[in-house]
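User: I'm writing a tutorial on reading structure tokens. Could you give me a worked example: one chain, its sequence, then its tokens, then a sentence or two explaining what the tokens reveal?
Assistant: Sure. Here is the example chain.
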Amino acid sequence: MIIILKRNASEESMKQISSYITGNGLEVHVSHGKEVTLIGVVGNKDLINPDHIRSMKDVDRIVPVTESYKLANKKFHPDPTSIKVGNTVIGPDNLTIMAGPCAVESKHQLLTIAHAVRDAGATFLRGGAYKPRTSPYSFQGLEAEGLQYMQEASMETGLATICEVVSLDAIEQAVKYVDMIQIGARNMQNFILLKEAGRSGMPVLLKRGLCATIEEWLNAAEYIIAEGNPNVVLCERGIRTFETATRNTLDLSAVPVLKTKTHLPIIIDPSHSTGSYQYVPSMAKAGVACGADGLMIEVHDNPACALSDGPQSLNFKKFHQLTEELRPFCQLVGRTF
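And here are its predicted structure tokens:
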């Protein structure tokens, strides 16, 4: 449930309400909005008396929360969340561009790409050190060595860094070197991994599962937030449908739907969703137009020779052209990058 306080509610009233709730074994999450202050209650609501709460000073009304996800719910946190990562912020006022190779292949390769994407306007360097591939014989990533290259690239360019993690060991390694960790589509409902990501304290990018509904996706985010880590960003990367013309089907409608359901930022991955560099610019622009807070785009210095996902990667020239074409779209929707 959510307790909505009257305007100008006193600090003493909030403390009394919170004390009553926590004293009965439930959790309290206070959200100070632009208009009102909310007290979110998580736990077995049968342990508290709603009529008693309504009678307490400065309580305006109680709103039930029927959705299974609570902390990720917009009802709990009406204003959109902005998440600071490194020297940049992911949120409603700007367009965050994450760019880089699907897989870190070498130090020279990563540094070359890092400089190119930064110069074109990206604020994040993405790179895979752990690669959960469909085939066990495909390149699986450089692991800790790749993470070290990510850190060196960040120090040299000033870019924030993000890398996918696939296990507790990978999380323990990643927190030493990168600014943000990513839970990939194949692990969206790996609940043990989600809990460990929450306990890490690192900002987390959570990709939508291949066949996941929006509610399942938001419940996955809840696992992370419930561990005390509110810094979660959602990433729509396409879902599996009957269509085979593209690698996946990019669900652009997920963006406006999520804007009504959650306060968490949402970004679009036009590379994995389409599987072809030819379609990335169009889908990137569409993502900005429908309200996405950012884009994750695969960029490679030589896509034809990439060890992973070369066909969907932009070369430097195409990426620079895309960022220039995105600027008027950002202006139209009131964003900067």
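What the tokens reveal: Residues 316-332 form the longest helix (17 residues). The first strand starts at residue 2 and ends at 5.
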